[in-house]
Every structure is written in C-alpha cells, then in structure tokens.
Specification:
The complex is a heterodimer of chains A (about 280) and B (about 350). Chain A has eleven helices and no strands. With about 280 residues, chain A is mostly helical. In chain B, helix 5 runs parallel beside helix 8 and helix 6 packs across helix 8. The chains are: A mainly alpha (about 280), B alpha/beta (about 350).
Chain lengths: ~280, ~350
C-alpha cells in the first residue's frame, strides 16, 4: 500500500504545473485553517478608516474596503467559505452523480432510460439561474448554496460514471463475482466502483473549481450568506467603487483566480497520476 | 473410474428438458433445446461442441447467470440436490452460487478484479458464505493458495492480479471457486486461454482437487485432448441440442454420431499416420434462426438420407450407457445387430 502511494506521488510530481497547483491549494487550505488565529475577531466588523489602499498601513496589509473592514481578514475567512462550499458541493455532486450513473449503467433497460432522461433534464436548465432560484427559495444560507451548487454540477459526473460502468459491467470479473454469490449492490459499489473511480476523482476535483466560481457568482449578486465572509461577496460590495478603489475587487478576484487555477492544475495532475493509459509515458 | 461407478450414485445435478431461448429482434431463437444432463458426485462430465452450440449458455443457465435480456430459461428444470434452481429467487440463488455450485471462467486474467489484491478477493470468497473472522479467513486463504500449488502463498496474498501470470491467476480462480467446498464446479473452457504446459498442470490440479473433495465437475470445452484427459462422460452438443452422450473411453473408441466422428477426425493426434490430413467437417452450423426441419446436422452429414430431412432424431440408447440422436447410426447399429444375430 505504501509503495503504491509513493508511486502515485511520483507520477503526480512528474507534472510540474500540478505540483505548483498543489502548493497553491495547500497555501489556501493553510490560510483557511489558520484564519481564527491570524484574525481572532469577527472579520466583518469595522476596524478603521474606509478605503485604505493595500501596502499602506502595516496593520491592514491588504487595505480596508468601503466600510472600513479589514480585507486581509475577510480574504482569510473567505478562503474557509470558498473551500467549504467547493468541497461539500463537489461531494454532493459526486454522490448524486455516482449513484445515478452507476444505477443507470448497472440496471440498464428502462431504469437507464429514465435516469438518463432525468440527467438530461438537469443539463438543459441554465446552471446559474437554477442556483439562484434554489437559494432564493430556500434562503440565503451556506448550506443551501452548497446544495444548490451540488445539484447543478452532478450531471457530467453521472454521465462519466455511467460510461465507465458500462465498459466494466460486462467484464469477466463481474461475472465471476456474481458466480461467487454477490448481490447487485455489493458488486456495484464494492467491485466495479473502485475500478471506475480514477476518472471520476479527476472530474470531481474540477467540480470543486466550478463550485468556487458558482459561490462567487451567487455572493457577487448578493444572494450569498450575509453572515459569512466570502470572496464573491467582497467583489460585489466593492464593485461600486471600481473606478476609484479597484483593489477591493482585484484582491479577492486574484484569490479566486489563483484558487480555481490551482484546483484545475491539481485535477490535471490527478488525471496524469491516476490514468493507467498515461502511465510510464 | 468411469460411468459404471458414477451411475451407481444418485446424481447431484440433473437437468431435465432445459430450454433457453434468445429473445432477439429477429425473433425467439432456441439456443438450448430440450437438454437433459446428469452429474453425480465425483463425476466429471465434459460438454463438447463448437462455438454457439449452447454449451456456455447451459453453464450460465445452471448458475442462473444468463444475460437477461436476451437469454431466458423458458422451460425445464435444473435439479440440484433435490431443489429446482429454476424456481429459486435471486436471493436464494445467491446463497447457492459460490457455496454449493462454483464456476471458473475462460480468461483468468480478466476474471479477477484488477484493483483488489488476490488475498482480499480470496477472503471475500471465503467470508461470503462462511461466518469466520478476517484473520481466520486469511489463514484459510493461505491454505487454499497452497492447495492450488502457489509457491510463497503468504506473500502472494498481497499481490495484485496484474502481477501474476495466466496460470497463477487461474489457480487463484480455482482457489476462490473451491473456497466454500462446493458440491459442483463448473469450468467454462478453463484452459483455453493458457499455454499448453500450463493447461496440463491446471487439468491435473482440477483432477486432484476433485478426487480429494468428491465434488461433481462439469467441464465445458472444445478441446478433445482435455476431454480425454479429465472426463468420465461426454455430452456432445450441436445447435442447442445434445446429440450424443457416452462414457469417455467408449466415445473415443467408437464415436457413433456423425458429428462426433467429424469432431474426432478434425483433432490432431500423435498417433495419426504421417502425411495424412486432418479431415474438416464440410459446411457450417446452420443459424439458429433457420434450423432446418429434421436433423440440424443434415447439411454437413455424409450419411444423410430422406428421413433425416423430415424428422428430428431423438436420443436413443443405442449402446450400453450411451444415447445418440442419429438415424444413420440407428440404421447402422441395427444392421450390425442383425449380422450378429444371424
């Protein structure tokens, strides 16, 4: 098992860009974890004069926004929100996607037809509008944003899982498992799923990046949770001052850009490391 | 060995008038048609025939693992230790599979889950049907690997299937199949994907395991060398029907059905005279969709006569312990009997 891990790490590290992405993601995670120690007080409280530019005051290294709140503190706490929503939404999407895709492929026939039409139905709905609708119906809370993002991003995972399952379903080892007396659920999740996971993991990591963007968009439009700090919200608040104090939008914008880029790079790296066809290249 | 001993025992498996049909767009095709077979404990039955004759479907039908759709059992019974497997629910069937009846497949390299270690797969097979702890199952797994002659068994438990050779993998498959002490083992072309020396070892191993456990064995093959090596009795299938059923020695000595003769004639052997050619069976198997009236083999048979074209030959006990479905054979044997009688 250990040698497998080392092997995996070596293949991952062969992709330099993925390594850079991984370091960036680690940094964001570090900031998110350390936020309560770096900024013990509520990040949304007003701390000083509004519109202090970055690198001017040593107390507020990233400056203050239009209300005089510490941007550095909001970025640090925003990293928590962003990562939490990204991870949970991706987990939600992956769970729904795998369940739907696996069931459709394994059962086949009318179950497959029904589930895939259902998936296509979701694909045709404009994503952002659907998220906004759910959030405005359920309420502006972090959980609801997470669920909403999960609900709009599961379709590609379902389709990928289905394709993987279809190619594995008729393999002889599945027949052998049935001949051993295993039930459908055991075969689906215990035997076929581990074989189909690598590409699904890659896609899930990319869904995290997508979820970060969705969260930002929702918060930018003012439909995010008003009680937690978030990068999108910060950009939304700062947009009225974009001509004079553009840094209020630029700082969180840069954070979003780097995080999404890093997550995509990690996704590519995972693809290289997990895809057996690219091994030993 | 042989039929005499086996016949004295009651069969553990008896298939009665099994009918499997393929429901295709073109219509309903009789893939297995009125097949009856018996296997006793400790007996080895070989089912022989060319591709598409229904031998693998028969095996899958016994296990109730037919690909549905298109295949489905439409008639007959599969009696195993007094129970009709056809009438069992899927859940009841899951308790039979792997425990009472096991199966091994043609290609060992693809029959093991590529992402699970050999040990875990074995332990899974053991714990599926027996209530033992992981540790006990682990010990039993080592024991099983030794039983199938895998050297360095403890270390091999941690290997992944791709780290093993084809012969090794087939040994692991056999170990998994016998893990719960089945009463019947079905081997679907177990040696086809292996090279010749390994084939012989695997056959030897299966013989040994059968002798020590007394399980019944059904071996499905188109390799008559394997049949001669391991079988007690042979059922020859053609186009979904059994055409000849005989003890192995008497079948090789005197094949009666014209198709069996063709099969034996088309098999290379060391005793064949130098320079003599292998005789192939002319023509090809009729498609299931347009089986002719009468005998399915009529278009390839040298001894075909009028009756073969209109009437379907039934299995008849023409010789001791043997049944044959062939009019030409009936005519020939009754003539022989007449000669002896006169």
């Amino acid at each position: 098992m250990l040698t497998l891990l080392i092997d995996f790490a070596r293949r991952f590290a062969r992709n330099r860009a993925a390594l850079v992405g991984f370091v960036l993601v680690l940094a964001v995670i570090g900031v998110a974890v350390a936020a309560p120690w770096m900024f013990p007080r509520n990040p949304l409280r007003i701390v000083g004069r509004p519109e202090i530019w970055p690198f001017v005051s040593s107390r507020y290294p990233l400056g203050t926004d239009s209300l005089g709140r510490d941007i550095a503190a909001m970025i640090a706490y925003g990293a928590r929100t962003t990562l939490l929503i990204g991870l949970c939404a991706s987990l939600t999407a992956t769970t729904i996607g795998i369940s739907v895709g696996a069931t459709a492929a394994y059962l086949g026939g009318w179950a497959d037809e029904l589930l895939m039409r259902f998936t296509e139905l979701f694909q045709t709905i404009p994503n952002l509008i659907f998220v906004l609708t759910i959030v405005s119906i359920l309420g502006q809370k972090l959980e609801y944003v997470t669920i909403a993002v999960g609900i709009v991003t599961w379709t590609p995972i379902a389709r990928l899982t289905r394709a993987e399952f279809m190619s594995l379903r008729d393999r002889e080892f599945v027949q052998a498992c049935r001949a051993m007396g295993m039930g459908n659920l055991r075969i689906m999740f215990g035997e076929i799923l581990p074989n189909s996971l690598p590409p699904v993991i890659v896609l899930s990591s990319l869904v995290i990046a997508g979820a970060v963007l969705f969260e930002s968009a929702v918060s930018f439009l003012g439909l995010g949770d008003p009680n937690v700090s978030s990068w999108g919200q910060l950009i939304g608040d700062g947009r009225t001052l974009i001509r004079s104090s553009w840094y209020i939008c630029a700082v969180p914008g840069l954070a979003i850009m780097l995080t999404v880029l890093a997550l995509n790079l990690v996704g590519d790296g995972l693809n290289d490391a997990l895809n057996p066809k690219l091994r030993d290249r | 060995m042989g039929a005499e001993i086996a016949e004295a025992r009651t069969p553990i498996l008896s298939i009665e008038q099994l009918e499997v049909s393929l429901f295709t767009r073109g219509g309903v095709l009789p893939a297995v048609d009125g097949l009856s077979l018996t296997v006793a404990a400790g007996e080895t039955l070989a089912i022989v025939g060319e591709s598409g004759c229904g031998k693998s479907l028969t095996a899958l039908a016994i296990m109730r693992l037919l690909p549905e759709p298109p295949a489905r059992i439409v008639g007959g019974a599969v009696r195993f230790m007094g129970r009709d497997l056809v009438s069992l629910s899927e859940r009841q069937m899951q308790r039979v599979r792997g425990k009472d009846i096991s199966m091994i497949f043609q290609d060992p390299m693809t029959s093991l889950n590529p992402v699970v270690t050999v040990g875990d797969q074995l332990i899974e097979a053991i714990r599926r049907h027996t209530d033992v702890s992981y540790k006990e199952a682990n010990n039993r797994a080592v024991e099983l690997l030794r039983q199938v002659r895998i050297p360095d068994a403890e270390r091999r438990l941690g290997d992944f299937p791709h780290q093993m050779s084809g012969g090794m993998s087939q040994r692991v498959m056999i170990a998994m199949a016998i893990a719960c002490g089945p009463k019947l083992l079905i081997a679907d072309e177990p040696t086809t994907a292996l090279d010749v020396t390994i084939q012989a070892q695997i056959i030897e191993l299966m013989k040994e395991l059968q002798a020590s456990s007394g399980m019944g064995l059904i071996i499905i093959t188109h390799d008559l060398g394997v049949v001669a090596e391991i079988a007690d009795r042979v059922a020859v299938m053609y186009a979904g029907r059994k055409v000849e059923d005989a003890p192995v020695a008497s079948l090789f000595e005197r094949p009666v059905h014209r198709y069996t003769r063709g099969l034996l004639g088309a098999t290379p052997s060391a005793h064949r005279r130098r320079g003599s050619r292998l005789v192939e069976i002319a023509g090809s198997v009729p498609a299931l969709a347009d089986l002719p009236a009468g005998c399915a083999f009529q278009n390839r048979c040298a001894d075909v006569f009028d009756r073969c074209r209109v009437e379907r030959p039934q299995l008849r006990p023409l010789l001791p312990h043997r049944t044959v479905a062939c009019f030409a054979a009936e005519k020939e044997l009754s003539r022989d009997a007449a000669v002896i009688g006169a």
